[in-house]
């Protein structure tokens, strides 16, 4: 029996699944936590990966491995392969001003220029904006930067036996894939090429960049002999994990919220709401992201001194619309819409509706409504939602399932709980090993269809309009 490993190195943790390459059956798994923060020493990821692999029984009997990782994170390496400074993560908004300068520097139609050139209008999260921040605020570190890669690139590189002390030859062994490269702001999904001019404008020089592998291409192995697949960005990994195809829209409710579709053609959104990413199969993955999702629920549960299960029960006990309460969940700024300095708000409070149940309901509906804005951004580009698939940790909440269906006005397919990103990475590893995408048995799923609640979404949008 051939075994494959899939790794999900997310913002909060590292998860490893080891599956039968032929059937997809789970053989064993492991997990480890990451440290909190918006800048992290990549060695923390490596230590967590080692811990998760050990818990999963290691790679000695594994034939192929793939790593999916949080997108955009800026990992800078010096000439020797050492990390120059802690990696800036996707949710580090200090680069917001740098992103704004990138747009203004491109002229009066700068947003359209960037959308057409890279598929993405610069925002604080993208790697290119972080590189510009680095050049402006830490010029010595920018000058030391000989290579730039992303979290999943760096972990795959370490699995191949490289690291500090590898030198130039080691840097030239860096690899990535098209899904993660498309989130940097210096690679074009439409042409499949890096854009060195962007790096000159941001970092001040063109560093060595990972070679972009094709969907089923692999040219490296671990010391134990496992083939190392190209890997993916986390959203592309989730799409693989749920078996999404062209026409499917995936809504992921994790640390961040994402709404993305699998399409045949690249997209370019000059409003900046939709990032025109590539996927891991050769298609495209236009995506709208929010900065605030499950942690809003965590914070509300903590305020009410309940656990998440009780928060769900409270939310379900309240009427749709939470008695008139509307929560705008911009607790950590926001990306859709692009308001990095915004804060959250709770509106419509009266003595009658200010109850724990309504507050719980308002928090769940606020997150669902912010995701509905992401879906609207995709629809504004002509992307049709033939099927909506709801995944992520918070997707296990019946209250969240009902709220998303109600405010979207659509049925929602909820797969059985699983590690979709790690599963997607494992599926890619199996595809690389066998030369074709495996048709693993689909997990069981539930279709949720709540009564449409357009009034809840309309009231939320009126409240959100004040958060500017």
Structure keywords:
468 residues, alpha/beta, five-stranded mixed β-sheet, 16 helices, 35% helix, 20% strand
Quaternary structure type? single chain
The number of helical segments is: 16
Q: What's the overall geometry?
A: globular
Which parts are unreliable, with pLDDT below 50 for 5 consecutive residues or more?
Answer: none
Q: Mean pLDDT score, rounded? A: 95
Main pleated-sheet profile: 6 strands, mixed
- Report how far apart the termini are: 56 Å
Helix/strand/pairing class, anyone?
Answer: alpha/beta
Topology:
Layout: E1 3-9, E2 13-20, E3 26-33, E4 39-40, H1 42-55, E5 64-69, E6 75-77, E7 87-88, H2 96-105, H3 110-118, H4 127-137, H5 139-144, E8 147-149, H6 151-159, H7 167-171, E9 175-177, H8 178-181, E10 187-188, E11 193-194, H9 196-202, E12 211-213, E13 227-228, E14 232-233, H10 234-241, E15 248-253, E16 257-261, E17 275-278, E18 284-290, H11 294-303, H12 308-317, E19 326-328, E20 345-347, H13 356-380, E21 387-391, H14 398-408, E22 412-415, H15 420-434, E23 445-448, H16 454-464
Parallel strand pairs: 1-5, 5-13, 5-14, 9-12, 15-21
Antiparallel strand pairs: 1-2, 2-3, 4-7, 6-8, 10-11, 15-16, 16-18, 17-18, 19-20, 22-23
Helix pairs in contact: 1-6, 2-3, 2-4, 4-9, 10-15, 11-13, 12-13, 13-14, 13-16
């Amino acid at each position: 029996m051939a075994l494959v490993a899939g790794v999900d190195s997310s913002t909060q943790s590292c998860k490893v699944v080891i599956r039968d390459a032929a059937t997809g059956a789970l053989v064993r798994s492991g997990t480890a936590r990451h440290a909190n923060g918006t800048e992290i020493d990549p060695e923390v990821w490596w230590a967590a990966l080692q811990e998760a692999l050990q818990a999963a029984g290691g790679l000695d009997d594994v034939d192929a491995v793939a790593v999916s990782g949080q997108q955009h994170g800026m990992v800078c390496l010096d000439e020797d392969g050492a990390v120059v400074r802690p990696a800036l993560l996707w949710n580090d908004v200090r680069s917001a001003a740098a992103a704004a300068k990138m747009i203004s520097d491109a002229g009066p139609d700068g947003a359209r220029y960037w959308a057409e050139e890279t598929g993405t209008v610069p925002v604080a999260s993208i790697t290119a904006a972080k590189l510009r921040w680095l050049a402006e605020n830490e010029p010595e570190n920018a000058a030391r930067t000989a290579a730039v890669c992303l979290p999943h690139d760096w972990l795959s590189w370490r699995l191949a036996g490289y690291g500090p002390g590898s030198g130039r030859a080691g840097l030239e062994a860096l690899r990535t894939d098209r899904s993660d490269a498309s989130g940097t702001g210096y690679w074009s999904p439409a042409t499949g090429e890096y854009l060195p001019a962007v790096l000159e404008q941001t970092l001040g020089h063109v560093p060595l960049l990972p070679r972009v592998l094709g969907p089923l291409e692999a040219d490296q192995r671990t010391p134990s002999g496992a083939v190392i697949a190209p890997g993916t960005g986390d959203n592309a990994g989730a799409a693989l994990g749920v078996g999404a195809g062209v026409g499917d829209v995936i809504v992921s409710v994790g640390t961040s919220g994402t709404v993305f579709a699998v399409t045949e053609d690249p997209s370019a959104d000059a409003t900046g709401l939709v990032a025109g990413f590539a996927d891991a199969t050769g298609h495209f993955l236009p995506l709208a992201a929010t900065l605030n999702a499950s942690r809003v629920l965590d914070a509300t549960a903590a305020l009410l001194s309940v656990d998440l299960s009780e928060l769900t029960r409270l939310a379900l006990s309240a009427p749709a619309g939470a008695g008139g309460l509307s929560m705008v969940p911009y607790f950590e700024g926001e990306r859709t819409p692009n308001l990095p300095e915004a804060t959250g708000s709770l509106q419509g409070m009266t003595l009658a509706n200010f109850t724990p149940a309504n507050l719980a309901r308002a928090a769940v509906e606020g997150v669902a409504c912010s995701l509905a804005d992401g879906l609207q951004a995709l629809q504004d580009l002509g992307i049709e939602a033939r099927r909506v698939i709801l995944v992520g940790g918070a997707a296990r909440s019946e209250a969240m399932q009902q709220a998303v269906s109600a405010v979207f006005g659509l049925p929602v397919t909820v797969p059985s709980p699983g590690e979709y990103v790690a599963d997607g990475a494992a599926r890619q590893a199996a595809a690389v090993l066998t030369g074709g995408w495996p048709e693993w048995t689909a997990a069981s799923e539930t279709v949720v269809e709540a009564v449409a609640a357009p009034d809840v979404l309309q009231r939320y949008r009126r409240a959100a309009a004040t958060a500017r």
